[in-house]
Design a protein that fits this description.
Blueprint: H1 19-22, H2 48-52, H3 58-86, H4 95-172
Amino acid sequence: MATRKRTTKTTGRRTARSAAARGTPRSATPPRGPPAPTVARRSVSRSATAARGGAPSPAATSAASGQAERLRSLKLHLQSTQDALLLIDPKRLDDVAHAAWSNEIFELARAINALRNVLLEQLSADFAAELPDIEDATKDLADELQELEDAVDVINAVAGVLGVITRIATLVA
């Protein structure tokens, strides 16, 4: 019976040590930038035509794609802000600055996740709006495939008859 090596996980939690105990002067705290923008959660609403399965208007499509592009841009901005915050060495922060730094990273992660959820909801709504057209196209392709298979069956039957005729012709000759 094989035994597994036990490993311990470190959670990366800080202990409440003072700046002096860490050997860091309190004045070594990096300056704080402006607070990151927060993003409110919004639900994705579909237009009445999209809800009925009809095609959305070109204006609605371009507005939705413009909004999605702005949301993607905001998400990238928040991710770059989070990456910049993660470059800060937490060991150089005092307790108050570390708590604020940790809270900012947490709030940025929440905002990024909220944006991801909104983008996924929009993608799902777009797919649901296109689904009837996809199903219709699939049915059309299935019908065309059946017609082609029927034509192949006719060609094979004719080829079989022609093969029989050529064999009879060679026997008679």
